[in-house]
Structure of C2 domain-containing protein:
Amino acid sequence: MGEKVGVLKVTAVQGKQLVIQDFRTSDPYVVLKMGNQVVKTKVINSCLYPVWNEELSMNVTQSPGVLNIEVFDKDWFKSDDKMGTAHLNLQQIAAAARMKQVIKARPGESTKIRTILPDSDNCLVRESYVSCVNGEIVQDV
């Protein structure tokens, strides 16, 4: 896997207008995959607008690669249904993390480091920013 150089923290916030997978609803949860690491949110039963607000953590190596994001519907008597998938190349945020020592951000302030545009390396809907916030590198996607 490589040497651990940090921790990636992902907050699964919410889902909107999810597809009905069961009779009139779904039981969604989020799965994050990076290399051989897999982490999951809790299942929100009977909900098409789930709110997880759940922080998931993964170890980061020198070359973090791609974060795969999948949403599933929990089924109790058969395999879970895949509802959607997305991916995010982590190279930009990893490069920003390596630059963190030279970034001079005041406590409580945010410093934009770079802009990430939607392309084939990610499933962004609109541009995203990598910023230094309170000494941590953050990207809102």
Remarks:
- The mean pLDDT is 88.
- The radius of gyration is 17 Å.
